[in-house]
């Protein structure tokens, strides 16, 4: 009899993922957690919330949400007691994680919005639109629907049109040190990096939880990585 829990064949791997999959939204005191839970409920995909170390270690995928100011988000995350456990799972066990909006910006080395260091998981700097000559006279924040321009093939953007539309709300943008980490850009006065990835770490500047069918497809794709 096959021990499907230990077997590494494709069928048993699929069974384990289907039965034990848990998309886990990190609750460190900021971010619209319920919106993500609602999307995954509609998709029929198991999702929960991480408020403790045990919750982190039961996750198969992690979502790092974020709204508001960079330093506030970093302070809350650093004080949550979850960072060490998350970094162990991300770096040693290689489980997928995606930062969304300010959660994406937290992946950077630093931000012009604040003075605190970022996580540095995908080296880069968060810049202000107002400091870029091409966008400094545009309305702030960049708010509303905008198209993504795919730069490379990625499982995160499978089954999408060439330039899918997503909802944005931000005044700062990510500038990767290595353009090889950029999966997609968007344009607001100039092209900026809006979906990034390095190994199992992803970031997206727009709000999939507010982006209707496009957002649902992206979150479904993330669950299948």
From TrEMBL:
<keyword id="KW-0368">Histidine biosynthesis</keyword>
<dbReference type="GO" id="GO:0000107">
    <property type="term" value="F:imidazoleglycerol-phosphate synthase activity"/>
</dbReference>
<keyword id="KW-0456">Lyase</keyword>
<comment type="subunit">
    <text>Heterodimer of HisH and HisF.</text>
</comment>
<comment type="pathway">
    <text>Amino-acid biosynthesis; L-histidine biosynthesis; L-histidine from 5-phospho-alpha-D-ribose 1-diphosphate: step 5/9.</text>
</comment>
<comment type="function">
    <text>IGPS catalyzes the conversion of PRFAR and glutamine to IGP, AICAR and glutamate. The HisH subunit catalyzes the hydrolysis of glutamine to glutamate and ammonia as part of the synthesis of IGP and AICAR. The resulting ammonia molecule is channeled to the active site of HisF.</text>
</comment>
<dbReference type="InterPro" id="IPR029062">
    <property type="entry name" value="Class_I_gatase-like"/>
</dbReference>
<protein>
    <recommendedName>
        <fullName>Imidazole glycerol phosphate synthase subunit HisH</fullName>
        <ecNumber>4.3.2.10</ecNumber>
        <ecNumber>3.5.1.2</ecNumber>
    </recommendedName>
</protein>
<dbReference type="GO" id="GO:0000105">
    <property type="term" value="P:L-histidine biosynthetic process"/>
</dbReference>
<dbReference type="GO" id="GO:0016829">
    <property type="term" value="F:lyase activity"/>
</dbReference>
<keyword id="KW-0963">Cytoplasm</keyword>
<keyword id="KW-0028">Amino-acid biosynthesis</keyword>
<dbReference type="InterPro" id="IPR010139">
    <property type="entry name" value="Imidazole-glycPsynth_HisH"/>
</dbReference>
<feature type="active site">
    <location>
        <position position="209"/>
    </location>
</feature>
<keyword id="KW-0378">Hydrolase</keyword>
<dbReference type="InterPro" id="IPR017926">
    <property type="entry name" value="GATASE"/>
</dbReference>
<dbReference type="GO" id="GO:0004359">
    <property type="term" value="F:glutaminase activity"/>
</dbReference>
<dbReference type="Pfam" id="PF00117">
    <property type="entry name" value="GATase"/>
</dbReference>
<feature type="domain" description="Glutamine amidotransferase">
    <location>
        <begin position="25"/>
        <end position="222"/>
    </location>
</feature>
<feature type="active site">
    <location>
        <position position="207"/>
    </location>
</feature>
<keyword id="KW-0315">Glutamine amidotransferase</keyword>
<dbReference type="GO" id="GO:0005737">
    <property type="term" value="C:cytoplasm"/>
</dbReference>
<feature type="active site" description="Nucleophile">
    <location>
        <position position="101"/>
    </location>
</feature>
